[in-house]
Amino acid sequence: MQRYPIAYIRRSSADASDPGDVSREAQEAAVRELARREGHNGNLRIYDDWNRSADVAKEAKRTGLNALLADIEAGKVSAVYAYALDRVYRSMRTFVRLTDAAKAHDVRIVTLREGVLGGDGSPMAQAFAQITAVFSELELNTTKARAAGAMAVRRQRGDHIGRVGYGYKLARNEAGAIVAVPDPDRPLEPLFQAMRDGGNILAACKLLNERGVPVPSGPTAERRHHAEPIWHPTPLRKIIARNAPELLPRKGPTGRRQSARSSALAQLLVCHCGHVLTPEPGRGSYRCTRGNRSGSDVHGKMFVTERAILPWIKDEAARFDPHKVGTETTLSEPDDVRRGTIIEQRRKLALAFTRGALDDATYEAEDAALASEMSALDAMGEVYGIPSAIDWTWSPERLNAVLRTYWNQVELGPDMRPIRADWRLPEEWLR
User: Fold this and answer.
1) Span 175-193, pLDDT tens digits
2) What CATH number is attached to the domain comprising 46?
3) Is 7 exposed, middle or buried (0-12, 13-18, 19+ CB in 10 A)?
4) How many domains does the chain have?
5) Which end of the chain is more exposed for a tag (fewer CB within 10 A), N or C?
6) What's the rounded Cα separation, in Å, for the pair 19 and 219?
7) Host domain of residue 104
């Protein structure tokens, strides 16, 4: 079996503003130079555990180290290069695992700082290697104890703990505590405006990139250091959810957010095979994706245009008699006020979480409770906010919202024409 050299790099935490003296670039340059000195010019493989602690309790998260040990034990590795021994291990247990595997498979471990691990193999060299492991573990434990003490002091003083969210920075208040304050260099309002202008997360990302709004800093941006950082949906969605959740689509019964309906009959038409049709807004039609997979020979007809079934839809919708319900009812003022109160409570809750006043579990539990109450109000709005008549020139989104208060679904026959509507409204309200 042909063996190959491996380089290993690690750092507990790093970002673009604090690369440190053991930055990724510095470590890569060091290990490549070590490999070059020993004649390895093209087959060096680099494993890394970036933003990973060397604490033995967190060793399972060090995927790079675990892959390195697995390759050594499989006999695939000829040599291991690292910037320093404390990049590889900071405990006796990891030291023993590594050196036993290296000894069993004749693998040299070389670092820029300490040289060859174990030196010439003499008892004195081995003892020195063990002593370095002991002192590395002592240094780690001392650092952990110091950090725990500092954390207790910060909590007592009322400091913000952890990173601040996008739109905020750390500063000292009048009492001397370190707190999160709005960051004028990364304001939140352009994000909110992009959401309002775009209407959804993807469109907002595109607008933010076009407008040159600064992206969040962090590991994601750093990993893309070879390309210009751009906005992506996941971080933007998290920022909006923390600071302005009312701009996101509300969550449905499954907990997933319900996107705006761009077709009047979205999520209403059910194929003769029992599958819900997928809208094709650009074509003004609806298609059964199950039929696409099985083919027309097996499935039969699989799509229908909105224009072809709209007359039936209008006639069926006209069966609703608002006079049997009474005058048109809308949300009561107390419900409307409560809706605004919930939005404000969620905003304040997100702000408290951003400033470190709430832990993850507390924030998620309280926010979920408020979201559930908002969903209940929305459900009441569906029942009591039915318009007395439909204006078929309304936008597809508004038509869909109204028709979904009328029906659970509309069943189509083999000819892809409506045969029955499953009404949500009471029978006594129909003509």
Assistant:
1) 888 888 899 999 999 999 9
2) 3.40.50.1390
3) buried
4) 1
5) N
6) 12
7) 4-141
